[in-house]
Amino acid sequence: KNQVEQSPQSLIILEGKNCTLQCNYTVSPFSNLRWYKQDTGRGPVSLTIMTFSENTKSNGRYTATLDADTKQSSLHITASQLSDSASYICVVSANLGNEKLTFGTGTRLTIIP
Amino acid sequence: GAVVSQHPSRVICKSGTSVKIECRSLDFQATTMFWYRQFPKQSLMLMATSNEGSKATYEQGVEKDKFLINHASLTLSTLTVTSAHPEDSSFYICSAWTTSEGYTFGSGTRLTVV
Asked: Is-contact B35 B92, C-beta < 8 A?
């Protein structure tokens, strides 16, 4: 069964600090991995997308890594801001003829001043 | 970038009534729209996949007669929750796929059935 597990479930850090969120997956056959940011009461917004051959991708203060061998990904947030408070969702896609997405349950990140 | 406009953002309805949620793709054509439901502190769960001009494909356990999906044009897909009950209260999100940007999500609809 395809699964995506994220850790930690929730995280609170001080404004300006860095943090790293983790994503482990058992999705096959792997197609790509996406990180999304979801503000409360809003739809997810794409941060990064990585395919099998990519092991790092940055989008401003967000840097995602992918280790396809160990089936792990991380999202590193640098110099956190209050607006970074949101849920971060790891989504892994399987290529089964058509793309099938498996969503992680997300990490709830709270930035405090 | 690709934008999916979803409305209403919030709706409160009485038990037994029907509610329609609309998703429009702006400046692009969405041949396929995905509909998700998200309960508090849980992940998005795919309910159904709608294809323009054909019947929607529902995930196992989703009642197609309760959640009516219409994808009559390349820019509009609708989800109608019929005979809503309190247990249908949830956050509903649509998503469209484009080759340039992958999956783009709507802003979601908070449905509360009282």
From this structure: yes
Do the chains contact at B106 and A43, CB–CB below 8 Å? Answer: yes
Q: Confirm or reject contact between B78 and chain A (CB < 8 A).
A: no
In 3D space, the residue among B35, B53, B37 whose CA is nearest the CA of residue B45 turns out to be B37
Q: Which residues of B26-48 are buried (b: 16+ CB within 10 A; e: fewer)?
A: eebebeebbbbbbeeeebbebbb
Q: Is B92 in contact with B36 (CB distance < 8 Å)?
A: yes
**Given A43, A49, A103, which is nearest B102 (Cβ)?**
A49
- Of A81, A89, A79, nearest to A110 by C-alpha is A81
| Closest residue by Cα to residue B88 from B106, B109, B58, B59 | B109
Cβ-defined contact of B108 to A41 (cutoff 8 Å): yes
Q: Please report, in tens digits, the pLDDT of each residue of chain A (113 residues total).
A: 889 999 999 999 999 999 999 999 998 889 899 999 999 989 999 999 999 899 999 999 999 999 999 999 999 999 999 999 999 999 999 876 667 789 999 999 999 99
Q: Do A104 and B104 touch (CB under 8 A)?
A: no
Evaluated on CA atoms A32, A8, A72, A111, the torsion sign reads: positive
The three-state secondary structure class of B109 is strand
Secondary structure class of B13 (helix, strand, coil)? strand
Q: Are B61 and B48 in contact (CB under 8 A)?
A: no
For residue B66, give how far its alpha carbon lies from the nearest alpha carbon of chain A (Å). 23
B68 close to B82: Cβ distance less than 8 angstroms: yes
